Amino acid sequence: MSDSPIKVLLVDDHGVVRQGMRLYLSADPQIQIVGEAKNGQEALEQVEKLAPNVVIMDLLMPVMDGISATREIKRRFPEVEVVAVTSVLEDKKVVDAVQAGAMGYLLKDADATALSEAIHAANRGEVRLHPEAAKRLVREVRTPQMREALTPRETEVLRLLAKGLSNKAIARETGVEERTVKAHVSSIMAKLEVSSRTQAALFALKEGLVE
Known about the structure:
The protein has two domains: 6-139, Response regulator (Rossmann fold, 3-Layer(aba) Sandwich), CATH 3.40.50; 141-206, Winged helix-like DNA-binding domain superfamily/Winged helix DNA-binding domain (Arc Repressor Mutant, subunit A, Orthogonal Bundle). It is 52% helix and 14% strand. The chain has helices spanning 15-25, 40-50, 66-76, 91-100, 112-123, 131-140, 152-162, 167-174, 178-192, 197-206; strands at 6-11, 31-37, 54-57, 81-86, 104-107, 128-129. A six-stranded parallel beta sheet has the order 2-1-3-4-5-6, with helices on both faces. Residues 143-208 form the HTH luxR-type domain.
């Protein structure tokens, strides 16, 4: 793993919220705040300019909302991960954020530890969701009826993915190369007709592959 700090962009239309997150995250020496933005359009410009690893994204903002911005960031800069941090816990917002590509969904009352852990997890390619957000996703997202199409190895990889493991960790657990795991993950997502690791994990939850 690189010793370089995780570069983070803070996006929220309220300056006091951004200031609070800066204060929270200043205690983590592995996180570097590289910039701020007050709406989704500014976020896109800052991502292109600053190349952050992780974007902390509010959802309700003027000019361009956080869901639209997340979708556009993942389209143009797929290597950049997004964590939604919002005061809104509505079923549709949770689903839309995840389908747009967010790797995390936290509420603004999350403590410094939860926020820091979500950033580290997203940077590793892992998912972190507020427990209630996870429940709403399980309830709202329609499960594809494709379990029978998965091979035994793909089922094993899906189970580990749903536990929050990165491709590298899954490779260690299964004893195969990381590029092979990546190929399995791509095959799983294609067979399940989902566009994110989070949606694949939801399938595993509904199918009882993990608790």
